[in-house]
Amino acid sequence: MSIDERPISTPLPFVRGWLRDPIGIGLPFPSSGATARRLARAAFDAAIPDAGPVLELGAGTGAVTEALVECCCAKDRIVAVERDGELCRVLERRFPGLQVLQGDALSVGEVLRNAGLAGVSVVVSGLPMRAIPPDAAGRCYAEAFEAMPAGGAIIQYTYGFRPPVDPGVTTPALEPAFVGREWRNLPPMGIWRYRLAG
User: Fold this and answer.
1) Where are the alpha helices (DSSP H) in the chain?
2) How would you classify residue 130: left for phi > 0, otherwise alpha for psi between -120 and 50, otherwise beta?
């Protein structure tokens, strides 16, 4: 099935997901196409060749997934993690053949172990890290970095102007870099790249 033939995503499942779990979803609407494309490019630039699939945390209805497929990545080289069951079914319908893992992306190490995945090349995170306690955010990132070779990166997008995960209060120590701001998003979205410090 080509991208043009894929079912169009509507915002209704995303809004229902937000109503079920507003803190877990963040805001009641998905990322814009412009934001999704910038995230896909940032993930492509940071990915470690031959290290495994691209791991998308908090895939929602698949805006970023679609951009990854369009930009650089075959569906069988993407693993999407989503906690909400309805949104998982939306992803499976939109992207036949995509590996969709229903589970808590904050426990990414457990999710990957249960799926038998040994490693990933890069992580794209749409998790609402500003609404997550710092220790849980740090633990999630630590587990994500354990799944990547040295030099691995997490691409995180967020609302606001500060780094979404404070590198001063997490273990392991993190090194954030601001990738850019996408103004064609409501509200505007900041894109950050995290690597392990040192």
Assistant:
1) 11-20, 22-25, 33-46, 63-71, 85-94, 108-115, 134-146
2) alpha
pTM, two decimals, is 0.84
Q: pLDDT grade, residue 162 (50/70/90)?
A: confident
Helix (H, G, I), strand (E, B) or coil at 147: coil
7 assigned to some structural domain = no
**Number of separate domains in the chain:** 1
81 pLDDT higher than 60: yes
Taking CA 57 as the corner, what is the angle to CA 151 and CA 26, rounded to the nearest 5 degrees? 125
Crossing angle of helices 63-71 and 85-94, in 10° steps, is: 30
Residue 160 lies inside a defined structural domain of this protein: yes
pLDDT of residue 192: 97
CA distance 24 to 4: 30
Q: What's the CATH code of the domain at 65?
A: 3.40.50.150
Domain hosting 75: range is 32-173+182-196
Task: Give the amino acid at 30.
Answer: P
What are the two backbone dihedrals, phi and then psi, of residue 141, each rounded to the nearest 5 degrees?
A: -65, -40
C-alpha span between 5 and 132 (Å, rounded): 37
CA–CA distance, 42 with 155 (Å, rounded to integer): 7
Amino acid in the structure at residue 109 = G
Residues 6 or more apart from 57 whose CB is under 8 A from it? 81, 105, 108, 123, 124, 125, 126, 127, 140, 144
